[in-house]
What does this fold into?
Amino acid sequence: MKSSQAAGVDPEFARRVRESFARQGLMAHLGAQLSVLEPGLAEIRVAFRLELTQQHGYFHAGVTGTIADSACGYAAYTLMPVDSTVLTVEYKLNLLAPAEGEELIARAKVVKAGKTLTICSADVFVRRGGEEKQCATMLATEMCLAGKTDHPRKR
Amino acid sequence: MKSSQAAGVDPEFARRVRESFARQGLMAHLGAQLSVLEPGLAEIRVAFRLELTQQHGYFHAGVTGTIADSACGYAAYTLMPVDSTVLTVEYKLNLLAPAEGEELIARAKVVKAGKTLTICSADVFVRRGGEEKQCATMLATEMCLAGKTDHPRKR
Amino acid sequence: MKSSQAAGVDPEFARRVRESFARQGLMAHLGAQLSVLEPGLAEIRVAFRLELTQQHGYFHAGVTGTIADSACGYAAYTLMPVDSTVLTVEYKLNLLAPAEGEELIARAKVVKAGKTLTICSADVFVRRGGEEKQCATMLATEMCLAGKTDHPRKR
Amino acid sequence: MKSSQAAGVDPEFARRVRESFARQGLMAHLGAQLSVLEPGLAEIRVAFRLELTQQHGYFHAGVTGTIADSACGYAAYTLMPVDSTVLTVEYKLNLLAPAEGEELIARAKVVKAGKTLTICSADVFVRRGGEEKQCATMLATEMCLAGKTDHPRKR
It folds into this structure.
């Protein structure tokens, strides 16, 4: 991140992002936590549970993809204006190693922030016995919807 | 699918795939069901719950990605040999519309089956008031690990 | 394509797209031709030459990616307003088989047309001795820049 | 790259890779050069020509994708055994900025080297008036075909 980008950052970005994260029912259901949040950066962690496994007993790639996607979206959202919401346009995930361990950690950063589109990358690590091993990498395109609320619409 | 590919299909593919699906803790945690299974095809469905939402109250893209990924993996696995397991190498997901509705349905098919790698695509639909609307599309690369068990390793 | 989308198509879309194609120096350098153009659809063909090969003597994946990307961009551009230009945001290409043959053919279509973003897919075929074989598939995100010219800027 | 990976590197990797590059007709046709080659790393450069442009007069995304793909493939191939050839399974390219400048430079590295599959990333820069600006980023999956020649098959 260049400082010129950070210069225009909404001073209340952390509150805005954390409130959005708290509204995501899936994050609570997976037990995920937003552990780091800085302009252009976000980290999400989730502890191992049997409810999160694939057939061999490791973290399911769906959990890996979900926390990496949310981390990319929120890394991008830190740099977006107050009166906006963020949307994932698309992402690509490469799985590099079995996600076998006690905790899964997705670390995302903004690669290029634009007015409409922001490109992010994330690396995902699995912690096992005190050691972290990279198990996945993501490249994602996020979209800023200006003038739209990040809250659910009234029905 | 060409019939020449289907010709060599393991006659017990359905049992093998359904047992693997049943071992995925995440599928039960999301409430996902393997609703269709044929050689080269798989469909997974999940009903709406607040535990599956993103910040606007729709299905989270993580759920979309998870069931599309599992559907691609199992579509590929139907065509793999008895004594093998399947691994997702990578996938790319494009989100086309908000996933607002009562049920999310991922339909995957094999595009090209190979000895080591199988390429699959999936379309994801959201059902709302009796109508289905496409909300995502995926392109995925699956890998066959021959001679490896699909069960958890003994520890 | 739904007819509701086609309803608003610029009647002069073909001239607009063909002029843009003709300005792409790379298309001439590869010997590529825009062989089909309809609302939401584009096909690009290129004949085999040694100048287009990879190390085994087949069409280079770069040629495959280039004509598939251009076909996606122009399929999307057929549906964009008169006063706009098109930009590829990103694409993903899966190579399915060696591109060994006399001609390479990329067929692209619009999957979802939006005001800002349009999602396209393309299948690429290689023709050899009268038979076509699919050798690649692409998923691409295109962006409409409204109010911008598709011509080079004056310097 | 961990040194443990580099430890097993074919001592003649550079000759093997450069000979493969020299057989790619497309690289000569684009005027591309393999400017850096180390275990797990490759850089390819191409100078601006009108033959390489898109409709606005910048480098065509097809050129960006082509040299990034070749750089990823050759970065992976440096770490593969003597008696093998390399194949791109798939790649995803995000375009970050217009590629306006005198030279295009793709820098690729191995993210994870495996026996069968190797994951690479590449960043592409455009040089203009002495300054480099990133214009694209790629994530690619490469496959090692052991026991196969990298030369064209006899016919």
